[in-house]
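FW: tagging you since you asked about this chain on Friday. Here's the raw sequence from the shared folder, copied in full. Didn't touch anything.
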Amino acid sequence: MLDDSNNSPIEDPNLLLALYRISQIGSSAFNIRDAFKRIIEEIQILFQPKSASISLISPNSGLLEIEYALGYPTDTKDLSLHIGKGITGRVAFNGVATISNDVEQDSRYVKLIDGIRSKMAVPLFSEGQIAGVIDVDSDKVANFTARDLKRLEAVADESITSLQSVWKQRQLITQSDQLKALISVGQKVVSNLELQGLWESITEAALDLTKSRMVTLQLYDETKEQVTMQAIKPPYQEFLSKVETLRLEESMNAAAIRTKRQVEFPNITTPDYLDLKDAPQRDDVVSCLSTPMIYEDRVIGIINIFTRTRHRFPNDEKRLLQAFASLSAAAAQNANLYARVFNSEDLLRKSERLTTLGLLSAEIAHEIRNPLTVIKLLFGSLGLQYDEADPRNKDTQIIIEKINQLEEIVSKVLSFGKAPEDLHTVWSIDELIQDTLLLVRLKMQQHRIVLNHKKTNAPIMVNASKGQLQQVFLNLIINAAEAMPDGGTLTIYSIVEESPEEERIAVYFTDTGSGIPENIQEKIFESFLTDKPEGTGLGLSIVKRIMRTHHGDISVANSSSLGTTLRIEMPLAQ
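HL: got it, structure written out here
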């Protein structure tokens, strides 16, 4: 071929047409492989090579890997070169375009395919960094000129611009898909309020999100300095039994926990990881990314993502996993809170049942004491006197002893059922209401009930038993919820009301339910009155008794088909 290096490649109409077509790739290529294919097709038109290839430096391996090739056997397309090795590797190292007129005489040449005699290689620059190399090969000696090299450089410059456009489009699509996936798995995760189910849900969601080989989740106990395996996906029981609980120094997660940052492990199959018990020694697990689950600046656990092959986790992938880990940490705290609330509500319910039993016992004891007193008085007035030897004398003594014993039992029950005044302390009425609403918040959400607590302008204090007054509030809130089976609004507000004797606080509970039938409004605070098949009819009766022990009362303020307002009132703390 004649050396026409003095002619500018810009004057070449074929090159200009090729550059134009390459410039359109960024907006018309379906994917990155389609872009590579169309670039190679333009190279084939311009240079008629025996073979050509586009190689990129892999961010995972650091090697120069062939992305698309023309004229290469299928078994060589997966070959890779170390940077600096071979003509192509040298161009990737120093960024200088090169021609080799006779590769058989060139010591730099690494033979990949037969029949190659001359070669051109030009670098691909992306944002000032070497991203890869374009190779063009010929089966003729000295087939390429300096002008050809300049033409190939022009192709490389235009190609990288189009490739960057395709990459950015692909990146935007990927980020959009990741965001959709994050939202989807996030909804799945945060809706799980049972802790063990939550751990399983998080690992399964992470596996779907990353398409990785394996995901593990370990919880961190700060006081004991140890990690405990909670879930593995896919299940790997043999591994789980070995690493259920580990000291921090035995775990690969120590660095991520102590630094509160993600830690990447490029290759956990090396001997360096043999002492770390939670690094799985498997042929199909190579790289790992450990992401801490952080809540309020505390590490509560670690999510580990394991890949099948050696993998370098890009920043986008790391940010996605960090966002997922933060979401998971919040979901864990939410589940913990729900468990505590559920337990607190259960304990309060048990306390309410005990209070109900105590007050019911006191009521029964009170009813027994009156006839018992009559029996004792009447028996004493009989003046029954018998001789010592008379068996009736012994019977009379036993009757008196048993009457006294019954009287003592009744007195003890009445004393037990009475709320001791010294257990009453000063509380803010708004705080008591707010604490009770926390207990039922999730249940109200599940029943689609909006809680509207209108706080007072200044703290209003009452002298009360916190547990008993919260039982009153809880009972009224649950009753209101049951009156709104299809959802609604419960409004709670307090008003200080003046009276000739003292200032009193009135708390109103207004629901949007169906109302209380007018014919039973005056009776709803009586014992055993209920319209619920499973009810005992003691709830509002107990509420009334508790309010009376607090020198207060409860009443129906108003009720209609639009809803009911119940009013409780009691004196302010002195």
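FW: The first strand starts at residue 51 and ends at 57.
HL: agreed, and The first helix runs from residue 13 to 23.
FW: great, closing this out.
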